[in-house]
Amino acid sequence: MNILYDERVDGALPSVDRAALLHALHQRVPDLPLLHRPEELQPYECDGLSAYRTTPMLVALPERLEQVAALLKLCHEWGVPVVARGAGTGLSGGALPLDKGILLVMARFKQILEIDPAARIARVQPGVRNLAISQAAAPYGLYYAPDPSSQIACSIGGNVAENAGGVHCLKYGLTVHNVLKVDMLTIEGEPMTLGSEALDSPGFDLLALFTGSEGMLGIITEVTVKLLPKPPVAKVLLASFDSVEQAGRAVAEIIAAGIIPGGLEMMDNLAIRAAEDFIHAGYPVHAQAILLCELDGVQADVHDDCQRVHAVLSAAGATEVRLARDEAERMRFWAGRKNAFPAVGRLSPDYYCMDGTIPRRALPGVLKGIQALADAYALRVANVFHAGDGNMHPLILFDANKPGELQRAEALGGKILELCVAMGGSITGEHGVGREKINQMCAQFSHDELTLFHAVKAAFDPKRLLNPGKNIPTLQRCAEFGAMHIHQGQLPFPELERF
Length: 499
Known about the structure:
The chain is α+β, with helices and mostly antiparallel strands. The chain folds into 5 domains: 7-105, 2-Layer Sandwich (Uridine Diphospho-n-acetylenolpyruvylglucosamine Reductase, domain 2); 112-229, Uridine Diphospho-n-acetylenolpyruvylglucosamine Reductase, domain 3 (2-Layer Sandwich); 233-342, 2-Layer Sandwich (Alpha-Beta Plaits), CATH 3.30.70.2190; 348-439, Alpha-Beta Plaits (2-Layer Sandwich); 447-498, no CATH class. Helix content is 36%, strand content 19%. The chain is built from 18 helices and 19 strands. It has helices at residues 7-12, 18-28, 38-41, 65-78, 130-137, 156-162, 169-172, 206-210, 244-256, 269-279, 299-315, 327-338, 340-344, 363-377, 405-422, 438-444, 447-460, 475-481; strands spanning 34-35, 58-60, 82-85, 102-105, 112-116, 121-124, 142-143, 179-185, 191-195, 219-226, 228-229, 233-241, 263-268, 289-297, 320-323, 350-353, 356-357, 380-386, 391-398. The strands form 4 sheets. Strands 12, 13, 14, 15, 16, 17, 18 and 19 form an 8-stranded antiparallel beta sheet that branches. A hairpin with a 5-residue loop joins strand 8 and strand 9. The longest helix has 18 residues, at 405-422. The radius of gyration is 23 Å and the shape is globular. 51% of the residues are buried.
């Protein structure tokens, strides 16, 4: 599957004697849990992008940072690639292993080290679940704002690696806006701290550079996050529309009115019906699209904002606008949205979840374009997305058992991402590039930009052992993909071509 996997990655990696490496690890780190039998390795063949599988050479399950540092030092000496993995909920193949590398699973680092209500921060290990941070902070009236739909399972280390978002990121920001400090280990096993607990830290903003780097620059060992006071009041409006284009225009009009909702989510009819059948959230199943708009803050402000949003939605063509009657109904509305992915999974044997971002003004046109592409490829697409910040999640339904459908789904996904780029957007908003979108990186970035990305990677990881073959395509690959031109026929960093 060339779109998701470049055979040059594993094919060009140096061969390592597996038995000799296993022996060396046992000698160097005798108490490090290692999996090496086929039946032990099989559960780690994939992450959330489960259609694509690779069996790792070895799986390491460290419990102490000294074990992680020792493993990294040995892998650096031996030239063995390392792929970090957290909870395995990623959706871009970023944590897919290599058959000539070690899968470093950080899931056992799951301690909440400190909750400081005065400073409004939490110090946590990378394996801590996203939702567990808010649960630990709740007794102090605080919470952690970024809330991916997988927050019950996904780990904070993976959230930092992918710069995860969530349904409330419009008002409260992505992971990068809510992390103060990251402690990490380099590929040489050396500790490094990026950022600080202060409002600012000296030097270049390496924390922002590291956030979203998909395990290519270092291994996360600790994260310090901001905690926010829980809003005293939160209300949700549900608006129904006769077309997705109308709903898309309503999103832009809400923001243009100077209102920044806590969350602003959109679902089309296919997603509405799936979620309603699964969760019974009370969605209008005959609507072609719905918007969920949450407004939070103090009582007086929320009351006024609800009235203003109601007026904007009605003027934008909403056929019905409902205010959640109580907290239970508000939670049902959100449960339907947050369970949309598994709900859509009940409609088809397989689906392919995309993750493009566009300017809000382009929403109606892109939705129309997605439908035209879906018709051209004879596949159904359910649209579920963070409408307020233009982060789209088209879910392409297909059956991998039918010849050619997987390839059509991949091709359609690529075209949707290229449409997002053409409209001034990006190929990812929160899921990352991983292996899934590596060809579309060629469509979004120029020769010079990709050269700079490779230089940044080389500064942190000169041997390119951390998560190789992900995120940044080689210039040769882009030339083959036909999306860019190689400057004067020369490839900078010739050694990169091993990946």
